[in-house]
Amino acid sequence: MNELLELLEEIQVKLSTLLRLDVEVDSFEPIAALDVSYKGERACACAVLMEGEELLERRTYLSDAPFPYVPGLLAFREAPLMLRALRLLEGRPKLILVDGHGIAHPRGFGLASAIGLLTGIPTVGVGKSILVGRVEGSGPLKRLVVGGKQVGFSVEKGRRFYVSPGSNISLSSVERLVKWLGLSYPRALKEADRWSRECLK
DNA sequence: GCGACAG
DNA sequence: ATCTTGTCGC
Ligand SMILES: [Mg+2]
Predict the structure, then answer these.
(1) Stated pTM of the model
(2) DSSP secondary-structure letter at A100?
(3) DSSP 8-state assignment for residue A149
(4) Distance, angstroms, CA A21 to C1' B2?
(5) Is the ipTM of this complex over 0.90?
(6) Considering its fold, how many domains does chain A have in total?
(7) Per-residue confidence at A158, pLDDT binned at 50, 70, 90?
(8) Is the CB of A34 under 7 A from strand B?
(9) What is the distance in angstroms measured between the alpha-carbon CA of A24 and the sugar C1' of C5?
(10) Which of A71, A61, A169 is nearest to A115 (CA)?
(11) Mean pLDDT of A169-185
(12) What's the CATH code of the domain at A46?
């Protein structure tokens, strides 16, 4: 089984070379958000679509968790479910927020990167804690650095969270997005979290 | 070898 | 992520 995990890690290393991190994105809406909740082996992925403060759509997809949780390999557990929920959306998001990191990952290929590569849509990873890297700088918007290179931001406004590009979007665009969000945790992700949990009750 | 380790 | 009740504070 360790061989399988090593194989999956090698796949991440190769796929990371296919990421597009030079795309300037200036239009973020309609914006989608993805999250997954669990109840034993049962899993529920939720995709929401928002425009301003209006929740345009809310779709959920239920199934059994296809893969266990292994730090660094979260994409193999949640991406398949998130993609199914995403496909249920009728509207087309200009950007997707994912509950989990983007390139702020040991091999530069987190959950948000997988979603971005598989959809071609700009994706941004939003984590509530650090998987890899350290925070540098000061102020409410700090730099998240890995191996001397900035891979994202540490955002502070009440609760602290970490943001990094998934794919199809540049680091500078992510910075503009964070400022556009007013440095606060995205309402869309709160909705996705709430409803993914709700559908398991 | 030991500790860290998204959700 | 989930397990879980009350409790401190705005
Ligand atoms: Mg979540």
Answers:
(1) 0.97
(2) B
(3) E
(4) 35
(5) yes
(6) 1
(7) confident
(8) no
(9) 48
(10) A169
(11) 97
(12) 3.30.2170.10
Rounded distance between C-alpha atoms, residue A192 and residue A174, angstroms? 20
Give the count of beta carbons closer than 10 Å to the beta carbon of residue A30. 19
Q: Which residues contact A152 (CB under 8 A, 6 or more apart)?
A: A101, A102, A103, A104, A125, A133, A143, A144, A162, A163, A164, A165, A171, A174
Are residues A89 and A63 in contact, defined by beta-carbon separation less than 8 angstroms?
A: no
d(CA A171, CA A129): 19
Rounded, the Å distance between the CA of A135 and C1' of C9 is 30
> Is the model's pLDDT at A40 over the cut of 80?
yes
Q: How many helices (H) and strands (E) does chain A have?
A: 5, 9
Does at least one atom of strand B sit less than 7 Å from the CB of A55? no
Strand B within 7 A of A71 CB: yes
Residue A1 is predicted with a pLDDT of 75
Query: Which residues 92-111 of A interface with strand B at a CB distance below 7 A?
Result: 99-101, 105, 110-111
Q: Answer whether any strand B atom is within 7 A of the Cβ of A73.
A: yes
Ligand 1 center–CA A91 separation, angstroms: 22
Structural domain including A53 reads 2-198
